[in-house]
Amino acid sequence: MDLFENSNDWAKKLEPILTKYKGKKHPLDYHNLYQLLVMVVLSAQDSDAHVNKIAPALFEAYPNIKSLAVSNPEALIPHISSVRNFGTKANWLLEIAQTIQKDESIPLTMEGLVALKGIGRKSANVIMREAKVPAEGIIADLHVIRVAPRIGFITEAKDGIKVEKQLMQVLPREIWGEIGMAISFLGREICRPQPKCPECPVNGICEYYREHQ
């Protein structure tokens, strides 16, 4: 069967998770776009929960991009030293702040976001989804990378960019903004490495469930 033949079917089949998770806020506990941008950079190869823990003290010291733009690695690093790759991320954040200069100038297009240090397509998709601007891609985080092939609507891939590309071919554009996060929430809550299949709202269409029940 050609995976790319019935894109509309998949949109319909995934409706239960779109309904369940539509508009649900990202697990990063941010309060504005500036905080989201910083936290997305910090959460690469680290957990959202960990970044949430260090965020209040960090944003007390650096309430906006302007304050970050005039800082330096020595001042910033103590606030983020428990985060993985903190040295590199400190440099990225300072460079982003010096490039953007003020909160209102945070770009909200794929092109503008991926031009920033430490922001790849996945991070850009997250920022655009939370900012409620039209999607230019689909969030493909580690949960999506695990769950989408398991359900069976893309072939397995370890690479987020390849996974995103396959998703974009299979799914209609009007659900791009929400479907990535919906699959991610499904992966966080139900379709975990050890999945809780009986609880899953889309187990009726899932290849893995069909094989393992």
Walk me through what this model shows:
58% of the residues lie in helices and 0% in strands. It has helices at 7-13, 15-21, 33-43, 48-61, 65-69, 73-80, 86-100, 110-114, 121-130, 142-151, 160-170, 176-189, 207-212. The longest helix is centred in the middle third of the chain and has 15 residues, at 86-100. The protein is elongated.
Tags for this model:
mainly alpha; 13 helices; single chain
Q: In a nutshell, what does this entry contain?
A:
This protein is 58% helix and 0% strand.
Number of H- or I-type helical stretches: 13
| Computed CA radius of gyration, to the nearest angstrom | 18 Å
Query: How would a textbook summarize the main sheet?
Result: none
- Which ranges are low-confidence, i.e. pLDDT below 50, for 5 or more consecutive residues? 1-7
What is the share of helical residues? 55-70%
Strand content: under 5%
Record the SSE blueprint.
Blueprint: H1 7-13, H2 15-21, H3 33-43, H4 48-61, H5 65-69, H6 73-80, H7 86-100, H8 110-114, H9 121-130, H10 142-151, H11 160-170, H12 176-189, H13 207-212
Helix pairs in contact: 2-12, 3-4, 3-9, 6-7, 10-12
